[in-house]
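The freezer alarm interrupted the setup, so I double-checked each line after restarting. Inputs confirmed:
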Amino acid sequence: MSSRERKQFLAGIGRDNPVFVQILGICSTLAVTNVLRNTVVMCIGLCFTLTLSNVTVSALRRWIPGRVRMMVEVLIIATYVIVVDILLKAYLPDISRELGPYVGLIITNCIVMGRAEAFALTNPPRLALVDGLAAGLGYSYVLLIIAVVRELMGSGTLWGIPVMGSWWTNWTILAMAPGAFFALAVFVWIVKACFLKPADAPVPGTGGKPS
Amino acid sequence: MSPPGRFAQGIRTIGFMIGITIVCVGAVSVLHVTTLQRVHDNADLFVRRAVRTAAGLPPMESAAALAEWFTSSVTPMDNATAFQVRDPDTTEPKRVILHSGPGLWGRITAAIGLDAEGRITGMTFTEQNETPGLGARIAEPWFGEQVRGKSGPFRLVPEGTRSTAPDELDGITGATITSTAVRDILNAVLSTDAKEQP
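Predicted 3D structure, all chains:
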């Protein structure tokens, strides 16, 4: 791994993190993080889609006409998402049923489009692969942390197994959509206050508006 | 920008779009067709599992054994929305009815088993898109098992009551709309059943 690749990888995990720095992909952060199992499948699906769509867009970058580049990006992303959906339906039917429409919603995740538009269109495939993977992993660990907090406090379980005991009163609000806003806001606050110095916080925004 | 011209560029753009669309659609179609049989098998498996659970029988792990049991002991009726179950292990015939109702986010379809006296033998769900962690908890085993032996018509009581009264259904805290929908589905099945078999 060259130093450029390492730098790009670390940026996706930390200083350029799609969730807590760029504040992208918020709708899926809010929707799937109330149960850990769904979150894990969503993260795997997103990493897969993001990495492959980044590589594909990057490989085709010399041929994609500028005027229709967004249509091409969406087409490529949608193809990978449908592939994930079909594979889940055929080989992991139980998980597919539990996730319902969430897998299809990866298409609308701004991170995928954002990375394709901001990075893959101007960089070679190898670097785009590292970038896609880093953004995917950066998204995943944030979601997993939020999901652990929400499932533990909202339902008293972890991966569906009761762990909190009978003394714990479930904070139902945390299992519902508003709970996700609270959990995410507290997380972003802690990370920004403790880990990100104001000087290295980059200007957010890569073209897409938060979804 | 002159010679290549806007016309040539336009043609190139359209050609590229058509080409990539054909590649993407082709790839998805091939994958869809090759996995179609598996997806159908999975759907059948879900219905069979649901019928067995609703009839109050212990689950079977192997799909082949389940398929064999289904062919030998179950007769589909009414366009596969109801099933007559004659299990060799139990003397009494049972009926399993699939019934749908509106949930919070989408349709909920329940498989509800009834014995000859109109008592419920079990309940499970073949289709639901309720909120994970809240309404989706109707898929947890205890929720379906609580109605076994009851005969309704049901009214909701708070979760955790674990009532054994024949007309009480434990709702789910934080999922009132889902709980009400399930109660309505149960009552609809029971009242239709009572009319058919006075």
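Quick read of the result. The beta strands of chain A are 157-158, 161-162.
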